[in-house]
């Protein structure tokens, strides 16, 4: 296995990958995917890409072009240092300064975090993917070039284009899932360090993956949604979804738009409207059946809960969050409810708590608790036998680890799935593993990045899914449901199922939680879950 032997290797062999993962470096998956010879391999990065862009391993996420002159190189390094300096200034980084300083100053090098990281594990323990490999680089740069402290105490590191560009690439080899942070006995947050490196690159150097920035945040702020949907188009699409859902369930629904004074402003991840219309259709069916006072907003940005800034850029994050809060304020709703989207939860609840003040600080709630209250209220009758197939539950990192929302989705499942059909993953709840699509990976696919992602970040989740269903017949005649109540996770799980052909070979399908709820509603026509979707 090709891997670096020390942190200082980050400056060596310019233009050459420091690590390369082959399928035979990896631990075989459970049956029927246990033959490594049959597993697809990661196609190599092209020579053209290696010549043109920064290279740290055998894939590329960010496309950082090589400098054309010494001056350009020097400017690149200096702008990184300028951004790093700002990260340690209270006025520039009041949101994250405390935990950042703590994470920089204290690390016992105990490696507990490495054991927790699915990327490190699936890499066959490749040194490049240790959570503290990139943290140690930024730490050494900080102590040597910002604090000007002794390299004898903190370790030495060169600082040039190669180091900085590779460090930025490395910050996109982390799902920012914070499983490592949870296990660190000191409280060091390696995920935050990845995120702060991304932030410096974006805010100070104008460097970010185009899927997140140009085709994500920028598009959302310009037209209203990173899907490209304008207010007119989203209304058209929802009208179509309402009609289709009413026909399939036999329950008439009409999504309310811009209803002033409603109790709830529901914000979906707009990707659901485009890719999984059965999800917003199910939400509307449940909310209407429960008699909730709710609305969606057709205001620009406010019909899309996506906020990619949360992964890479504070300014983009804040702009989107303020749009969401303004729409709620203008409608005079009592609270915002977030649909099935983990990062939208993180953005508009935990992180936005540091940005939304005064009358913009409108109560925000997860759909998981709203749905739990509905399901347990007795307002809707359910027949769990309509979900008489094996079900496992994926825990989105932002719901469980970040926000502690663990029980509500399980209380719902207990009511709508026969008891002997539910299979917990090992491990689950706050100790879950990331789906592998976290921090933007699910929508990133330049060069061979999607293949790298399937092998390195999504494979641990796929392993968990296969383990959860190991006692079941693994064929298409016996459908099994991976319930993933997060749009981003669902996209990643769809991709991994497709990559391994897991529907055809093992009958593994996927969907959200609301689809499973409607599928069990006695008043609905049966078979809301249509396995052919998957
Ligand atoms: S678990 Fe914490 S202290 Fe130990 S190596 Fe990881 S970051 Fe450092
Ligand atoms: S945040 Fe997640 S992906 Fe990143 S280093 Fe920690 S455990 Fe690994």
The outline comes out as globular
State the low-pLDDT regions, or none: none
Task: Indicate the mean pLDDT.
Answer: 96
List the ions, cofactors and other small molecules found in this model. iron/sulfur cluster
Total discrete domains: 3
Largest sheet: 4 strands, parallel
Q: Which key phrases capture this entry?
A:
four-stranded parallel β-sheet; mainly alpha; 25 helices; 534 residues; binds iron/sulfur cluster; Rossmann fold
Give an overview of the whole structure.
The chain has 534 residues and is mainly alpha-helical. It folds into three domains: 7-205, no CATH class; 214-372, Rossmann fold; 381-533. 46% of the residues lie in helices and 5% in strands. The protein has 25 helices and eight strands. It has helices spanning 47-52, 70-87, 97-105, 112-116, 118-122, 131-146, 151-154, 161-171, 179-183, 190-205, 213-223, 231-249, 270-275, 278-289, 309-312, 314-331, 342-351, 367-377, 397-402, 407-416, 449-456, 459-468, 487-499, 502-506, 513-519; strands at residues 264-267, 294-295, 335-338, 364-366, 391-393, 422-423, 480-483, 508-511. Strands 2-1-3-4 form a four-stranded parallel beta sheet. Strand 3 (335-338), helix 17 and strand 4 form a beta-alpha-beta unit. Helix 6 (131-146) crosses helix 10 (190-205) and helix 14 (278-289) packs across helix 25. The radius of gyration is 23 Å and the shape is globular. The protein starts with 46 loop residues before the first helix and ends in a 15-residue tail after the last helix. Bound molecules: iron/sulfur cluster (2 copies). Residues 107-113, 132, 184, 186, 188, 190 line the site of one iron/sulfur cluster.
